[in-house]
Design brief:
Chain lengths: 113, 120
């Protein structure tokens, strides 16, 4: 089966740093995505990790440890507009036709002024 | 960047009717499109993978006779919710990826804006 776990909700203060963790147990692994989704809108791509390590992109960084089945999304200098759901998703599949992305339940991040 | 459109963005229908949702890739050819459903405060649940020119692959628990998927061209996939009932009310999102199935994925999965379905 496929299992992707992340906290349901988190709260942080404007200007601070927050880390959203994700653990996964999936049949097959071909990469891990983080998406941001504002209420009522479609997800938007944030990051994609295939190899172990930290990928930094502006205020957002994503880390992956394949041996531990673990990733985190780090958001720095939080802004009010960062209030959204953050979805951890794993690309699974070993054959061409099985290539797909499975999403976790998402973490709702609340930013306080 | 690549754009994926969905039509309609909103639909309200009576119980028992069928509703068709279109997903189009506007500036690239999409070999594979994915259909997701999202209930309020829940994450995206993959319903099916739509491959151009072949039958869709449905996820476990998704009724293929109720959710008909057609991927007739490289730029269009349709999802038809047949005999819709109130429990089918949800946010339906498609995504599309260019290139060959199984090819480089990275961030090249583009989401449509979603279709909100309300069945009365």
């Amino acid at each position: 089966g496929q299992n992707i776990d992340q906290p349901t909700e988190m709260t942080a203060t404007e200007g601070a740093i927050v880390q959203i963790n994700c653990t996964y147990q999936t049949s097959g692994f071909n990469g891990l995505f983080w998406y941001q989704q504002h209420a009522g809108e479609a997800p938007t791509f944030l990051s994609y990790n295939v190899l172990d390590g930290l990928e930094e992109k502006g205020r957002f960084s994503s880390f992956l440890s394949r041996s531990k089945g673990y990733s985190y999304l780090l958001l720095k200098e939080l802004q009010m507009k960062d209030s959204a759901s953050y979805l951890c998703a794993v690309r699974v599949g070993t054959r061409n036709r099985d290539d797909k992305i499975i999403f976790g339940k998402g973490t709702r991040l609340h930013i306080l002024p | 960047g690549a754009v994926v459109s969905q039509h309609p963005s909103w639909v309200i229908c009576k119980s028992g009717t069928s509703v068709k949702i279109e997903c189009r890739s506007l500036d690239f050819q999409a070999t594979t499109m994915f259909w997701y459903r999202q209930f309020p405060k829940q994450s995206l649940m993959l319903m099916a993978t739509s491959n151009e020119g072949s039958k869709a692959t449905y996820e476990q628990g998704v009724e293929k006779d109720k959710f008909l998927i057609n991927h007739a061209s490289l730029t269009l996939s349709t999802l038809t919710v047949t005999s819709a009932h109130p429990e089918d009310s949800s946010f339906y999102i498609c995504s599309a990826t260019p290139g060959l199935a199984g090819g480089p994925f990275s961030e090249t999965q583009y989401f449509g804006p979603g279709t909100r379905l309300l069945v009365l």
